[in-house]
Amino acid sequence: xxxxxxxxxxxxxxxxxxxxxxxxxxxxxxxxxxxxxxxxxxxxxxxxxxxxxxxxxxxxxxxxxxxxxxxxxxxxxxxxxxxxxxxxxxxxxxxxxxxxxxxxxxxxxxxxxxxxxxxxxxxxxxxxxxxxxxxxxxxxxxxxxxxxxxxxxxxxxxxxxxxxxxxxxxxxxxxxxxxxxxxxxxxxxxxxxxxxxxxxxxxxxxxxxxxxxxxxxxxxxxxxxxxxxxxxxxxxxxxxxxxxx
Length: 245
What we know:
- With about 240 residues, the protein is an alpha+beta fold.
- It has five helices and nine strands; from the N terminus they run H-E-H-E-E-E-E-E-H-E-E-E-H-H.
- It has a nine-stranded mixed beta barrel with strand order 1-5-6-4-3-2-7-8-9.
- The longest helix is centred in the C-terminal third of the chain and has 14 residues, at about 200-215.
């Protein structure tokens, strides 16, 4: 049972309401959703067997039950930044089908790509907890950001997780990358991410895709972000009107 790529395009991009900025974003995060059995298998295929993750912290996703906002282009999560002891942040992301200036100046925006599809994604983080204090999960600025695009029932958001999320630094064909694994037992929601100049994105994506395939790394089909893959495996896709295919 799989989500269809065209449906994903239709439901996960918010509409850009205003004209795009004059200058396009300089970088794109190339993403590969990996469907091997576990992280150790992927590392072995890449010649990195036994490598220790540079970070292993929990991540928690939030949505309604069943999920509604993720499929409409908004995602909510908490995760730890930096190393021990680190601090907990919340993060709201909005995904668009085209570059837009309909975002607050505090938002950090970048292109990302899964398979042959590219999206303009803007995120707004907020510190939730440090060693000294704990604040509300979603800041007023974050709430205003999300509600630019749709009404949010904040009380209806429920956690999916926490799940451990180890990360490994890689270098593939001269490009620095990160391989991570969200361990939602028994699932391993794995991705490889490499950031490059946007004008080089297509060329690098094809080259690294071939490299992964030649080494037997199992690339998921269709290519979906970890949140949608998680919800799909939990059996929520029918509630999104996807049907079975």
